[in-house]
Write a structure and sequence with these properties.
heterodimer; A: alpha/beta; 5-stranded mixed β-sheet; two-stranded antiparallel ribbon; 7 helices; 7 strands; about 45% helix; about 15% strand; B: mainly alpha; 8 helices; globular; disordered C terminus
């Protein structure tokens, strides 16, 4: 930068032997440069001071932590909305009762091809992590009856993780599900860490979501 | 919020769609900036070169982002290397992707005889426009949230600041300012004005963000970094002010001209 300034000054001084067009040369150029340096230094100091004051007065107040805990919404960073559904085996599940365990909720249906295609990966996940309680995987089926799902399990894909019946799509509406499959990854503290919309999820995509909830 | 958009019978994920739109808008703005900075018949060539370079940068960035993610999750990919070629828009590391994309853009444009400082100025304005659109994307898909507004009353519904919209508004304003001050800017000055403007916007917006990165006793880390950015930008911009006024700068040149002369442009 200083070399550039010197070069430009040299070009200016090399023109002194020629008739000077005063409209091109500002008067007292050197004096103006000295004043500008002081002015910029003052500006830096004032900016630094004001910046520190602004950062201090806008720091996060402690009370906000509690307010953030009340953020319930089907979005990343918020508390997952609570719900209660019955599984195809008659067992009831309530999400809030699973607090303390990472939860993966997969919204799906038997008529959805990408949902069917990602079932083997979900089953593998359940066998790897669900068997010893490291993670809970819930498949929330949309608007189908128990017989349809049983037929699917017997004829197409062997699924052993809990399948819940959302006959009226009430839970899907609560979670603003607009495409199948949609998968929510919920940490042990009940906060949603990731949402994957669409499928089929391959192992890498699935583990990307799982890793976000298993470390917390 | 709007996680998906239905277009002509198709259901499209909002996030990737708006990301692509942001890229296209950024490419268009960057190309037009190059054309203005050229001030010569080279302008059209520079604009076309920027368009081509942007596509190369996008491809390079995506590949680098996927490889960067794989590098930090090696165990996941050692057993199934085919996952590297997954077409899903997830599993991408942001920083390696951005760095590789920018380097690819710079290399391709240098091969087209475009000065690096011009590229940086164009990327600054393009980046400002793209970041504004990405902020709107974040609002639509629900990434991030604001602190409660001061007049919030305890009910089941909490009114919060739409921080993403604040950020988008400030970045659109910054884009306009950079665009309209382009004719009077020295080479590289637009980039540092962008750094200053973006840092100021983050100082303001992060003050009302509800999910800020906290460093110590509630102090927001992003604001600390932004203040550093403001100070560095002000310091560098002070050197531009020291340039003697009234010295008529020369028109931009292409290959074959001395390096010092190619940094000047016509006022």
């Amino acid at each position: 930068m200083n070399r550039w300034i010197s070069m430009l000054r040299a070009k200016q001084s090399s023109c002194t032997d020629q008739p000077v067009d005063k409209s091109l040369v500002a008067p007292d150029t050197d004096h103006k440069v000295v004043r500008s340096t002081q002015w910029w230094r003052s500006l830096l100091a004032v900016t630094f001071g004001l910046g520190l004051v602004w950062i201090y007065i806008t720091r996060m107040p402690p009370a906000t932590v509690y307010l953030n805990d009340t953020l319930v919404a089907p979005l990343v960073g918020r508390i997952a909305p609570d719900f209660a559904l019955t599984g195809i085996d008659g067992q009831s599940f309530r999400l809030s009762a699973l607090r303390g365990t990472p939860v993966v909720i997969n919204f799906w249906a038997t008529w959805c091809p990408p949902c069917r295609k990602e079932m083997p990966e979900l089953e593998k996940l359940w066998l790897d992590y669900g068997a010893d309680g490291k993670l809970m995987l819930l498949g929330v089926d949309q608007a189908e009856d128990k017989a349809t799902i049983e037929q699917f399990r017997q004829s197409m894909v062997a699924v052993t993780f809990p399948i819940l019946l959302d006959r009226t799509t009430k839970v899907a509406n609560l979670y603003n599900v607009q495409a199948l499959p949609t998968t929510f990854f919920i940490a042990a503290d009940g906060r949603i860490q990731d949402v994957k919309i669409g499928g089929p999820m391959d192992r890498a995509v699935l583990m990307d979501g799982v890793n976000k909830i298993m470390v917390r | 919020m709007l996680p998906v958009i239905r277009l002509f019978g198709l259901t499209v994920a909002t996030g990737p769609l708006l990301s692509l739109i942001a890229f296209w808008i950024g490419e268009e703005v960057g190309g037009r900036t190059m054309e203005r900075l050229a001030h010569s018949p080279e302008g059209r060539r520079w604009r076309n070169a920027f368009g081509s370079a942007s596509l190369v940068a996008l491809l390079t960035g995506v590949i680098a982002a996927r490889l960067g993610y794989a590098f930090s999750n090696v165990t996941l990919y050692t057993g199934e290397a085919g996952l590297l070629f997954s077409l899903r828009p997830e599993n991408l590391a942001t920083i390696p992707g951005l760095l590789a994309g920018f380097l690819a853009l710079l290399i391709v444009l240098r091969r087209n005889s475009v000065p690096s400082v011009i590229v940086i100025d164009a990327v600054a304005i393009a980046g400002s426009a793209a970041l504004a659109l990405l902020a709107i994307r974040d609002y639509l898909i629900g990434i991030g949230y604001g602190m409660p507004v001061p007049w919030w009353i305890s009910t089941n519904v909490t009114w919060r600041h739409p921080v993403q919209l604040y950020e988008a508004a400030l970045l659109f304003l910054l884009t306009f300012i950079l665009w309209f001050t382009l004719p009077s800017a020295q080479p590289g000055q637009t980039f540092w004005r962008f750094v200053l403007g973006y840092s100021v916007s983050q100082l303001i917006v992060d003050a009302v963000r509800g999910d800020s990165w906290l460093v110590l006793a509630g102090i927001r880390g992003t604001q600390v970094v932004a203040l550093a950015g403001v100070l560095v930008a002000v310091y560098v911009l002070s050197f531009y002010d020291r340039l003697p006024r009234g010295v008529a700068p020369k028109a931009p040149t292409t290959m074959g001209q001395p390096k010092g002369e190619e940094l000047q442009h016509v006022k």
